[in-house]
From TrEMBL:
InterPro entries: GntR_C (IPR011711), TF_FadR/GntR_C (IPR008920), Tscrpt_reg_HTH_GntR (IPR000524), WH-like_DNA-bd_sf (IPR036388), WH_DNA-bd_sf (IPR036390). GO terms for molecular function: DNA binding; DNA-binding transcription factor activity. Keywords: DNA-binding, Transcription, Transcription regulation. Residues 12-80 form the HTH gntR-type domain. This is HTH gntR-type domain-containing protein. The keyword Transcription applies. PROSITE patterns: HTH_GNTR.
């Protein structure tokens, strides 16, 4: 019986059938990135769908980087770039409101594990990049948007320094939401001396922990960093509410 027997003919379902077929071939070692898929006629027969529906399904998968359709030479299996899926992931998560706290919880989990690994695996190049990111955070401390981008770059660099493809992929899918969260926070929190000191000093503290390879300490340092950030955010929210009441 063809793999896709019983398909309804709707492109979404057919794309799912093709995707499951490709995943199965990757799992059993039959296909890997760069390999050419079976000829269209053979693949359509194998999956139990018409060639037009197969083409439509392959075009849908090409949009998310699963395959590359090369006219005249066939379709090739690709290794999707996780960052290219970030927009789709963001779109899906934004359907659930509020999503900020869930994203922050996921971020903390990823960064704490990444921090422990970075203490063991970070290279001189990684440390140099993180030092540059801290300098950029200090330089842009009074610019909410530029400062938020610098802040995000530091934390992305921390995850990269873990040299864990899975953690990097997970973090990349959250990138758009995290970037937005960084900007929103910096815009909402008054740039007091206390906040400026927190932003600069805490990132230096995280960097020092990595440089000194203190894997046992980095989890506490990162969690303290996030907790204090939440305190500043909550204080700013309370002040905003009091301001509205006083109007």
């Amino acid at each position: 019986m063809p793999v896709g027997a019983g398909a309804t003919g709707r492109s979404g379902n057919n794309a799912d059938i093709v995707f499951r077929y490709l995943r199965g071939r990757i799992e059993d070692g039959t296909l890997s990135a760069g390999d050419r898929l079976p000829p269209e006629r053979d693949l359509a027969a194998l999956l139990g769908m018409s060639r037009p529906l197969l083409r439509e399904a392959l075009r849908a998968l090409e949009m998310i980087g699963v395959v590359a359709i090369r006219h005249g030479s066939g379709t090739v299996l690709c290794r999707p770039d996780a960052s290219s899926l970030a927009e789709f992931f963001t779109f899906a998560l934004l359907q659930d409101v509020p999503v900020t706290e869930d994203v922050m919880e996921a971020r903390i989990a990823v960064e704490c594990q990444a921090g422990r690994l970075a203490c063991e695996r970070a290279t001189i190049s990684d440390i140099t990049a993180l030092r540059a990111a801290v300098e950029e955070i200090e330089r842009t401390i009074d610019d909410p948007e530029a400062g938020a981008h610098a802040d995000h770059a530091f934390h992305s660099g921390l995850v990269s320094a873990a040299h864990s493809p899975v953690l990097t992929a997970l973090y990349s899918t959250l990138a758009d939401l995290l970037q937005r969260n960084h900007v929103d926070r910096r815009r909402s929190i008054p740039a007091t001396e206390a906040f400026r000191a927190y932003v600069v000093d805490d990132h230096r503290r995280i960097l020092t922990t990595l440089v000194e390879r203190k894997a046992k300490n980095v989890d506490a340092v990162l969690r303290r960093h996030f907790a204090i950030g939440n305190e500043f955010r909550d204080a700013a929210a309370r002040q905003e509410i009091l301001g509205l009441w006083s109007v």
